[in-house]
Batch of 4 targets.
Target 1
Amino acid sequence: MARIVIIGAGISGLAAAARLATLGHRVTVCEAGDTFGGMLGQLRRDGFAFDTGPTLLTLPAVYRDLALKTGREPLEQLVELTPVDPESRHLLPGGTVLTLPNASRGGVAQALDAALGAGAGERWGAVVNRGRAVWEATRRPLLEEPLPADPRALATDPYPAAPRRGLARLLGPGAPTLDQVAARELGGDPALTALLTEYALRFGFDPRTTPAGATVLPYMEQSFGVWSVGGGLRALAEAFYRRCEQRGVEFRFGTPAERAPRGEVLLAPGPGEPTAPGRFGVLLALRGARPADAVQRTVLHADDRTAELAALFDAVPRPYPRPTVQVLRPDDPSLRPDGQHEAVTLTVTVPSQARFDWTAPGVAEAYADQLLAWTDSAGLGLRERVLWRVVRTPADTERETRSPGGAVPRPALAGAGGTLLRPANATGTPGHYLLGGGAHPGGGLARAGMSACVVAGLVGPA
């Protein structure tokens, strides 16, 4: 039996602790803050509750496996899981409204044809099929196994070449970026381009430079579905904290740690990316019942995609006033005081604290005002219903989770010469491993659970 010290009680730390304790190790988790969960925080006030980090779950199989491997109860007995349907509603430039079903690629094609015209679904489906080829090529080495000793194979984009016809033949050779996929294979259609590149933008990638293999992101979401957790995603952290306690894991809160004593195995967070984008959130406590036609996730796309990308990724970063906004409206009675109120969250990908000073006087509140004006212009009618609001910036994320710059950890992607891979879990120093969003296989709730699984496999049973 090894004595194992895990730095950080985020979801990856909880998952690793539960797995290693089940394997017979003596596990201590040191957390600098006063609670567990990391990014899976929650704000409660006046009967309202808001997740302050991720709000929806993809690839629930990761946490189903964690539940079964660390205890008798399946995940569905630990938390209430509900498929989100429809998966999302998109308010596109020009006034087009597109509603997509959950985990139904055929249904997505039909919705695209209905909203954008015959043939849109076929073009989209062809691109997502190539995303499936990326998934099949990278699932094991990029997600489920330790990073190979020679990762050069993952430095090459596995996106399969599409047929080149007509004007697409003039767009240049070589492995395409996500933007080039939109131009070559989606015909440059503004609505399909906005839909495709929103997946990259959500994870903090610039679609102008991100490899085409990022088409794996819409493939995964549209194939495996999106789920909500009753009580918010904080409930997932609470469930696995209880599982850790059942397995005898010791927690030490208010305990910063950098290294373990001699003879102990250390699991530490991977290095962050301070200049990667972060998230700006506005938590809205609203008077009035949730509208009957509301959906859980509405995506209001930017009025000018080119200007939005320039504001976010180019030399002088700034918050774009009419950006791509996710409007999250969970239909969960436990998150509101009663049926005559609604809890709504706006989230936007923005420059990190390392690239833009969100603490400057008035900046955050002024941007929240702009976002409410922008969503009202799309007919959502939120501003007039606001009882109170809480504004959250990358500076808050940095302070609460110690994520450098408040940047949200990004998933690893193949291609781009290996620059989008994350550091390996095994550091080369005996007894020292990296896990979490800053390490292989990268950020996002599902990948955090995968990182814990990989590290537990490297450590092995007691």
Target 2
Amino acid sequence: MTAKAEEARKRLIVALDVDTAEQAESLARQLSPWAGMFKVGMQLFYSAGPDVVKRLKDQGLKVFLDLKLHDIPNTVAQAARALTGLGADILNVHAAGGLSMMRAAGQAVAERAAQLRIPAPMVIAVTVLTSIDQTVFNREMGQPGEVQERVMAWARLTQEAGLAGVVASPRETGLIREACGPDFAVVTPGIRPAWSLSGDQRRVLSPAEALALGSSYLVVGRPITAAANPEEAARKVLAEMTGGC
């Protein structure tokens, strides 16, 4: 693998949206040469339990724990504290919970990691889900204005709270990068390779387009994991990320 391909591999997160730890471990083993991190979301976490994170970590894999914590500050802080002990590399909250909630989560994670003498996971905040388009945002959610305005407001609030970055559509990556600087992480789901269907995602871009706008990490799920040959699909995503090199 070339240096350029290896750098791209580190930035590719594959979403393990399956029901069992065995399925997740099998996919992760198969795809680890092509992906730098694996996402454990609600489906897998609620089906297989917290131990699935430890099992993946025991394989030497990096894990993004995507549970989108959102509640009152104390509840989220205690949940984040508990999750820190699982050893995930990234975990997230929802920016809609507000400044105090995000600050409480970040502080709880840092304190618990120090107590356990382990590296603290990067804490990031979800902005507007990539399945929400302008019509849904205005008519169904009753939110005024443009989607990107809300994304930007939450990105700035996340940075003010001291968190490391956000989850956002690749369509907002460039604006976030301009507003929050080069060191603020932008994790982008809604990545759809040229050869795949968008499914229930609305605000999508290709891997190459997202990287060009400044995405730190790309999250890809079904285009890889639901493919007839997941390894081949992962290789094709990497090829798009590196311009075919």
Target 3
Amino acid sequence: MSSTGRRADHRVTFAVLATGVIAFSLLQSLVTPVLPTLEAGLGTNQSDVTWVLTAYLLSASVFTPILGRLGDMTGKKRMFVVALAALALGCLLAALATDLTVMVVARVVQGIGGGVLPLAFGIIRDEFPRDRVAGAVGAISSLVAVGAGVGLVVAGPIVDAFSYHGLFWLPLVVLVVAALAAQFLVPESPERTAGSINWAAALLLSSWLVALLLAVSQAPSWGWGSAEVLGLLVAAVVLAVVWVLVESRAVQPLIDMRMMRVRAVWATNLVALLFGAAMYAAFAFLPQFLQTPSSAGYGFGSTVTESGLLMLPQTIASFVLGLVSGTLAQRIGSKVVLVIGTLVVAAGYLAFALAHDSQGAILAGSVVMGAGFGLAFAAMSNLIVAAVPPSQTGVASGMNANIRTIGGSIGAAVMASVVTAHAGAGGLPAESGYTNGFLMLTGALVAAALAALLIPAVRRDPATHAEPDVALRHPEAALVAGGTLVGDDPE
């Protein structure tokens, strides 16, 4: 319940959730285009400054599912406030940082806030009228892509005006306001999952995620065939197998393996892996392409600010189509929207791979990519939310977000290897590296669209056109004691 003892209007709740999610997604991308500035400001080198990204990634991968589970157990609103507070504290530390060590610690603290997204989905499911859930989830999902795009757009002007410290002072103000608003305006979730955190499972989950993400994030600099990378990959596989065995036998698992075996869940997670690989790789390398001096035979020599502005239409398209996605899902189904959105993004990537010699072509391709992002992001989140009971929403959507992040790490690392495979003029990557890289990402998106076809079709309510929860469609997926799922999706 809220502090007033009444349920808040769902539109107020949405505004608070949207503010928190935008701040979180901004912090994912703000530092990417200004790494050289951070390198100089923190007195470090090109290799070590990448830990500003890696530390955040590793921390978010560990805490996202844990906060999702804690939200299901103790209250989603409570953990949403905790996640925002962690983001705010991390911003404060980063804003004050003058050396790499403090900055990396700050980014680790910020990573705790990775639970913001699954907790927001859970709150929406608990608080919104049923016919508004799909639209709200779609809008919040689109804000992830929008926030990431806005981060790329505004990073340059913020650094020019306030130095790199401004990258964290401005989100800090937003986060403090969002945390206070969440505490006093958002009602506490009525749904609870009984039990406690399985800390052995949490440790194993953290261990294999850290091993995997550390390997793929450092592979471009350490070498894919290096002993360090191969050792970490082997460790990740072994630890992941042990984690699955422990979770499968646990009375109170951190992540219910029976839930993960539901076809609507695992198929959507497979799409998330492939989609994340393509999306985050593009966010990392499209600005780099635009900033390449034209003397290399390609690129436009754009500044950080100019490259961000060239990506602004993509951000706008993501937002607009994200708002439309919920309405489309009610009419034609989230699965169809996801397939269409993924193929639209693939078309944008293909256009960029084949035609990138003018800013007009870049803008056109970016708008197409952004439109697909908005459609697919929203539909993916809706499918996960609809596929599990309310008490599993946080952990299921947290794992989906996590798997998308893992895909992003793999995609960015592989893209880096492809782009830098051959040197061109002045030691810069050859143009063919970007062409081959975006063709590879196009293939990943086509594979994601094919994977989306594996998601079971959902019969919509003829009266409301809404997609019912899987627990309502299939009695065998109903909750049993302890909040676990029984059986699999038979479709």
Target 4
Amino acid sequence: MDELDPVIHASARLRITAVLAALTAGDRMSFPRLQELLGMTAGNLSTHLRKLEDAGYVEVDKTFQGRSPATYLSLSAAGRRAFEDYTAQLRSLLGGEP
């Protein structure tokens, strides 16, 4: 069996990926909403998002709403695939169907 994806396996990154995977492909979530859902500090969330972004799993869209900056996040196709592979590996480890 392949090892679990270490990028996703960290608890905080797994939670981030799971929330973003629950969105319909093509949908996105604002940084403050994700922060609120996960109960994470902005700095901690940013650090984990950077790791996911560097791996190509998360897409970050920084825009402006009027004069205020806004950051939106979504799971990339590669991120969605990685999360699906990760959950299949977990099921297999737990004795379920892959």
